[in-house]
Amino acid sequence: MSRKLFAALGGVALALSMVACSGDGAGGGGDTSDKKPSELTIGVSMPTQTSERWIADGNAVREKLEAKGYKVDLQYAGDDIPTQSQQVDQMITRGADVLVVAAIDGTALSGQLQAASEAGIPVVSYDRLILNSPHVDFYVSFDNYKVGVAQGTALLTGLGLLNKDGSKGNATGPFNVEIFAGSLDDNNTQYFFNGAMETLKPFLDDKSLVVKSGQTRIEQAAILRWQQEPAQKRMEDLLTSSYRDGTQVHGVLSPYDGISRGIITALQNDGYGTSAKPVPVITGQDAEIASVKLIDVGVQGSTVFKDTRQLAERAVIAAESFLQDKTPEANDTTTYNNKVKVVPAYLLPIQTVYKEDIKSALVDSGYWTAEEVAAGQAKG
Question: How many CB atoms lie within 10 A of CB 303?
């Protein structure tokens, strides 16, 4: 008997819903292990195509699933919450057997996940944890707190307060720094921010770092949807409000490469980029090719590399486990509470990339080619 027919039976559906709430990795569906991959469909919902990172994620998940013979329904939501909700609804209606979802707003898909549970469809939350629902069956991501620690450490290293090995550097400061955070509707934002700020706290406490604007709360630093233009506008406003007395910005904590590029544009428009007024130390995340180019030429200080090929592979492994009526392997069963339950997760490692690491981390691994780095643009 098929999973959909099981889910249609009221008493069994209730039992399956209870299993889905239990956090044991079961998605609430029946046994599909006897079906061929060509008979099964995985719905893949990605938030946007405005970031090359999400385009790469979607393509990687689709290609890995199709290579195994599965049918894939890949949709991008254009950073529009109603669009993503509608797309997930359609995946459910069209009979998806598993959903892989990178949410725009982690709180906005409760109705869709309820419908998925009632239809016996397991849900894999991809990189951004879906909140406020008991029907999230698995989570694949990176260690997001460590991403923030890496960004804070990269800022301190770039300023000379720390050496790369973590030992105390020769610089003493004080250095003027400004703080940026990601989108508040993305659950990862808080992890990134907490990791970074707890890393910076001792240096803020001893005044070797000074946030001249005074804007240190996440609500003040957040950039909705992680967009470049609002980041540029906020940096322009900070320069106008806090740096018109001749003082300079020495460092900027940025959580994402797109935000970093907005910050850099604002700084360059304000005259930064000369020997007398150098571009500050600026962090980032995702190793986007435009920012890798900026790191290579000495404009951006660093980025945190999260190999999305590995993330896509883990999403495929989790989806396939559900289709085979197995429990996906988790390496974290305590950290990621979505405000209803702790979601079992598989977390992948991250790496900080400075200029000297571009070849070994990004080129030699095949993530980008040397030609792409030189051009600052992906081929094809």
Answer: 32
User: What is the H or E stretch that residue 175 is in?
Assistant: strand 175-179
From residue 201, alpha-carbon distances to 65, 146, 189, 210, 222 in Å are 43, 15, 18, 11, 18
Nearest Cα to Cα of residue 294 among 269, 322, 268:
268
Structural Rg of the chain based on CA atoms: 22
CB atoms within 10 A of CB 120: 24
| Tokens (6 digits) for 336 | 């990621």
Could you read off the pLDDT of 90-137 as tens digits, one per residue? 999 999 999 999 999 999 999 999 999 999 999 999 999 999 999 999
pLDDT digits (tens, 9 = 90+) for 82-102: 999 999 999 999 999 999 999
Q: Torsion over CA of 120, 121, 124 and 125, rounded to 10 degrees? A: -90
The candidate with the shortest Cα–Cα distance to 312, out of 14, 74, 49, is 74
In the numeric block, which tokens belong to residue 122?
């397991």
Q: Can you state the angle between helices 308-323 and 52-67, rounded to 10 degrees?
A: 40
Q: What are phi and psi of 35, to 5 degrees?
A: -95, 150
Residues 103, 104, 105, 110: is their CA dihedral positive or negative?
negative
d(CA 179, CA 211): 8
Instruction: Tell me the two tokens of residue 224.
Output: 């909705």
Contact 111, 126 (CB under 8 A): no
Distances (CA, A) of 59 to 29, 88, 210, 243, 324: 26, 18, 42, 43, 23
The residue whose two tokens read 């001893």 is 206
Rounded to an integer, what distance in angstroms lies between the CA atom of residue 320 and that of residue 144?
24
Backbone phi, psi, residue 279, to 5°: -65, 135
State the pTM of this model: 0.87
